[in-house]
Amino acid sequence: MEAVVEASELRKSYGETVALAGVSVAIERGEIFGLIGPNGAGKTTLVRALTGTTEPDSGTARVLGDPPPATDRNRLAVLPQAFSPPDRLTAHELLSYYAGLYDDARDPEEVLADVGLADAGDTWYEALSGGQQRRVCVGATLVNDPDVLFLDEPTTGIDPAGRRTVWRLIESLSAGGTTVVLTTHDMAEAERLADRVGLLADGALVADGTPTDLVDEHGGSSRLTIETAAKPAAFDELAYPVEQPSDSRGGESRSPTTDSIVVRAVTPPEIGDVVDYLEEREIAYSGLEWTEPGLEEVYLELASRAELGRTDAADRNRAGGTETETRDDEQTSAGETA
Q1: Each residue of 201-226: pLDDT tens digit?
Q2: pLDDT number for residue 81
Q3: What residue spans define the domains of the chain?
Q4: Average of pLDDT values for 62-91?
Q5: What is the pLDDT of residue 310?
Q6: Could you tell me the fold of the domain covering 221-291?
């Protein structure tokens, strides 16, 4: 199937800061592509490059077969992360205004119903809650019934019920053939909505695949957390990997906690074996919690690797600078002595 949104080796720098480091991606019609990554990873820059609001330093991009600046704006919609429409217009007036920018727009009343605000059409934008305002903003991107929809953190500030309304709307748009590019920090949102997920770190696409494939490859094994004061040595004879969890994740220094033990790679039917082990050895425990790995574990693993690599590179640069300064000092001293 032909790609509707595609990028090839996109690069963009702002001074010495590399925002995109050769990003390539192809997204098909009707696909929901979730873009995740730490703050500053390059997600918004990539969206801007694909929508024609930022010109990359090199590389190419095409949307609906055309370079982004030449894409038919009637077929494209973008919800930026920061979007502040006029406060002193009602929700209906706002959607009517944006509908007026297109030749063949949808009925604003219908759009308000889609985002769950059918009863708020006569309310001034400034009088709406933060979550309702964000839903109006989502609605503003739908008035032209776009073929391609870019959503940058669309559900930020929306309550759980409203978030599910937006999720169902995005799913129905995809089912109808709309291609959706979605950036989010909500791993549950990405895991539910995205057909495929790309993780950006330091401007590079370090992973790209379905949520299931990414979890299988990077998520690790299941975790059975046992609330106990027992030490790991008490589990030496258990036939599963055992570890003592740390109180932080990522590249920072970590210290073990003292109130739990994690048993890895245990399936639900095997939990009984672990319980038998505890009771046979009279190991006191106050609770058990079994969890499967998810997209959050993938995110933490890959983002931590990127952070560690960045820290190591900085350390090498500092070490190289120190060595250079030392050699320069030695040469200066030798010259003064001569």
Answers
A1: 999 999 999 999 999 888 888 899 99
A2: 85
A3: 3-216, 221-291
A4: 93
A5: 58
A6: Alpha-Beta Plaits (3.30.70)
Give me the CATH code for the 3-216 domain, please: 3.40.50.300
Q: What is the pTM of this model?
A: 0.78
Least confident of 80-89, 116-125, 282-291, 305-314: 305-314
Write down the mean pLDDT value for the chain.
88
Q: What is the 3-state secondary structure (H, E, C) of the chain?
A: CCEEEEEEEEEEEECCEEEEEEEEEEEECCCEEEEECCCCCCHHHHHHHHHCCCCCCEEEEEECCECHHHCCHHHEEEECCCCCCCCCCEHHHHHHHHHCCCCCCCCHHHHHHHCCCCCCCCCEHHHCCHHHHHHHHHHHCCCCCCCEEEEECCCCCCCHHHHHHHHHHHHHHHHCCCEEEEECCCHHHHHHHCCEEEEEECCEEEEEECHHHHHHHHCCCCEEEEECCCCHHHHCCCCCCEECCECCCCCCCCCECCCEEEEECCCHHHHHHHHHHHHHCCCCCCEEEEECCCHHHHHHHHHHHHHHHHHHHHHHHHHHHHHHHHHHHHHHHHHHHC
